[in-house]
Structures are given as C-alpha cells and as structure tokens.
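Kindly inspect both lines:
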Amino acid sequence: MKILLLGNPNVGKSVLFSRLTGVHVLASNYPGTTVEFVQGTTRVGGEKARVIDVPGTYSLEPTCKAEEVALRILEDHCGKGKEDCVVVNVVDSTNLERSLYLTLQLVAKRLPMVVCLNLWDEAKHTGISIDKDALERILGVPVVPTVAVAGEGTGTLVEKIARARVPTYRYEKEEIWKEVGKIVSAVQVICHKHHTWRERLGDLAVHPATALPMAVVVGLLSFFVIRFLGEGLIDQVFDPFFARFWTPMVHGVSRLLGGAGILHDIVVGHGVSGEIDYAGSLGLLTTGIYIPIGAVLPYLFAFYLVLSILEDTGYLPRLAVILDTFMHKLGMHGMTIVPMLLGLGCNVPGVLATRILETRRERLIAATIMAITVPCMSQLAMIAGLVGTLQGGVHHGVAVFGTAFLTLFVTGLFLGIFLNRLTRGESRELLMDIPPFRLPYLPGLFKKLAMRTWWFLKEALPWVLFGVLLVNLLEISGGLDFLGRLAAPLVQSVLGLPREAVGGLIFGFLRKDVAVGMLAPLGLNWRQITVASVVLTMYFPCIATFTVFLKEFGLKDTFKASIAMVCTSFTVGGLLNLLLKSLGGWGPGGAENASR
C-alpha cells in the first residue's frame, strides 16, 4: 500500500509523517525536478505500507514547481489502474474553509481517501467546533481528528486508513467554492474567545511598531545561545575528548611511522613530536579530523538547534513577512530569509533551500548573494579562532568581526540591487499563510537536528580530508610554492596579504573553514585578518557548494556567478585594504598595524 499525505502548507503534514514513520526516512528530489519530497514506511493492518509526504499545495491546479510535483506524485502513484493507493488529506482544523478547496478537488478524483482534521486542539482553543461525524456523512469518507505534535488520534488514523473509502459526495466543479461554503456552514460553529498569550505574541511579531525590535532581540538572543552552547560543547566535550583519547592515539601513530617523513606528514602532520597543533599540523588525523568535528560541529549543532526551534515555533514565516519589502528591492521576496539562515549553517543546504522561491531568477540571485556574502558556521568558527591569535584583548576581535561583517552586509546590498537590475524577470509577491505560534514538537525537532548534523558530517568530512591531503601533496611537490609565486603580486599588492597566504586562498576552494585555519600561523595583523576573512568569504564557494550550485543552475549560470564572485571579492578586498591603510592609527595596534 502507498499512503500519500496531501494538504496545504503548514498544516502539520511533516509532524504527522514523523509520527507514522518513525526515524527511518528518505529524502530525495522528485525525478526530473529539484523539488524534494520525503518517504518512509509504516504498518497498516499488519502489512508494511509506504508513506509519502507530498509537497504542500493549495490546489490541484498548480501555480508553482512544488504544486506541480504534488500533482505529479498524485498521478504517478494513484492514477488510473493503481488500486493500492490511499490519500490522507491533512486539513487544518483552524482554517477549514481554505483547506476544503483541496479536499473537494481530491473528492472529484474518486480515490480511496481519509480526511485528517489536524490541529484539533488549536481549533478548540480558538473557539472553533467541527462536527466530524457530519463531515464524514457529507463526504462519504472516514474523518479523524488528530493532534500530530502530541500523537493524539494517529492510532485511529492508521485504523481508518485500512478502511479508506472512495468519496460519495458529488458537485459541479465550477461551483466548488459554493460547495465549500455549504459544508462549512453545516459542520462548523465558531464561538467568541479571547486571545491567548501565543496569539498576542504572534500579532506583535508582525506589527509594524514591534516586529523589527522583536526580530533584533530574537537575532541577538540566537547569536548568544549559539555562541554559549558552541563554546560550551568545545570546552566541556570535544576538547577533552581530543586531549584524553585522540591525542594519545595520534602520538602512537606518529611513533609507529617513525616520527618523520612524507607518509608521517600526510597522516599525522608536522610538529607532532611535541605538542599537536590541530589547526596547523595539516595531517589527516589531526587537522583533517579536528576541524570538522572539534572546531565546527559544536557551533553547527548549536546553530541548527536554534534554527529548528525558530522553524517549529512559527517565527520564521513572520520574519519573512517583516523582510518582504526590503528583499523585493534586492530582487527576491521575504521567504529568502530561510535559505539565507540555512546558509549561515552551511551554504550547501542554503543553496538547496532556494527551491522554495517561485522563479529561477529569484533562486539564482539568492544563491549568488549567499555564496558571496554569507559565511557558513564552520567558517565563522574558524574566523573566531583566527581572531583569537591577535594580541591586545577583546576589542581587537570586535573590530575585525565588525569591519568584516559590515563589509559583507554592504556588499550584499549593492550586489542585490545590481543583480536585480541586471537579470530579467520579476519577483513574485509573498503569498503565504502564517501559522500560529506553537511549542515545538521535541521528538520531531531532534530528529531534524540529527539529520542535519549527520548530513554535514557526511558532506564535510570527506572534503576536509581530501583538502588536507591535496595541500600536503602540493607542498611536498613544490606546487604550493609555485602557485604562491604566481599569485603573490596580486595577493601582496592588491590585498596587502603575505605571499604565504596564497596557500589558504587556494585551499578555500576545497574547504573555507580549513583555509582560514591555515592563516593562523602567519601572524597576520588585524587589517590583514579582516581583509583575508572578507576575501575568503566572497571569492569562491567551497567545492561542495560549487557542485550543488552547478547541479541546481547549470554550467552557464554557474560560470556567470563564479565570475561575479571572483571580481567582487578582489575588488572589495582591495578597496577594504586601501581604506583600512588610509585610516592610519585607527583600530587595534594603531599606526604599527597600519604600516605592516
């Protein structure tokens, strides 16, 4: 049996899917498209059944790529002659009138179906009463109230799926909204009810006078939680693990390999006879393991935890509404904030998340701006470590971070305005439903967190190891020195960086986070660290992001975006270098740093 979960966006399909399928799920693109859907398995009547979480759709008359895929999945799995398919129409009990439009379109398909009245608790809390027995009699199919986040009604839903029926309701298609009105009048009663605190909070989150201050507070709070949790995991979990367990093992491997030689330098790195420099040793077992796991994973875990909470509480759609007018000036709409925030964790899922935007033009603008001006969490963690090499206290780091991110923000603005005018097409208006504020469903939240974290390790670790190996081979063969001499005039004269920084820039194509770490032993001053951080963020995405970019947008658009990245990074880096030099004694280190 195949079970298709069909419904509008934000009706709780994904939570219901998690309840039905447990932890073993598979996410993939629908054939011939870049739209993702999720599938898993459950048991119905003792038999194994396949469950498909269909992309959210308001209608079977598609208006965007996601709705086209929803219709294709329905036709491919429940088309004529396919008797082993059941449609579970997930309905938002708090918005029955809107949801029934899709329900009646499904009724007209004459497919075995069950109507799931999800968010049943919220409907009662807001004074909405639905006679589910009357709705069942009218439609001629089983109707089951559920509260997916709490698991209420899911057992009954599975029982009803086994007894799904073909609808008996008949209507003229051109009268569909009239029929919706008749059904709602017959089964729904709304009583007056005072606003709950969550409803008041939701109103404040989109009110013009309070929305922006609330967004600033949420942003600052998120930053401090990520920093506190990330640093706590490093200090209390990961660093002790490497010190107590990993370091003795590395020393043992070092002794086994004779403490020196080409193989030793590749496997365990340089300088292992004494203290291990995990950032600068450039060994597969030192830098290759520590960077993604010990330095990056703690911050990434903290970031994805905060992001998942913002998603599941319903705050992100409100943030999209707040930013919609601003984003339209850059050629996009407010939902672009979702891939941008994902890009702060890792640019790869950020680029993939641009699929939620309706037009290819919007997707290309968003992905290009992200690749140029949005540093991933792993790179942010390494920049923080690089700033830690400066002498003179906290204000040095504040100056570097402040200057670097102000530069990236301003560059993103100008780049968005330029791309908006350069590329043909239009930006669609933001048409979306804002869900009520909800408490997160913790099992689903942690499942999403685990999947994202595992995906990062699976994606990042092989590339870091490959990058470390490649740099070692380039250094052994003299290739790194040759490339350094070749690029030295540009790097030294335009960017004001030492010739040795070329290796880090080359390595940035493989993994930017490790590239930043390679600059730590060079003793850069605050101006050079600022310029290097900006250039490494802008000049090219890591190879994993580049691969996904190529897959999503094709060779031609990827080439155009790459040219924009290289030109923007060296132009902005050169101007920033000149500006900081011209300020003379301003900033950490005063005139001494400015003269270096």
User: Anything to note?
Assistant: The radius of gyration is 27 Å. Confidence is low (pLDDT under 50) at residues 585-596. The chain has two domains: 2-193, 211-595.
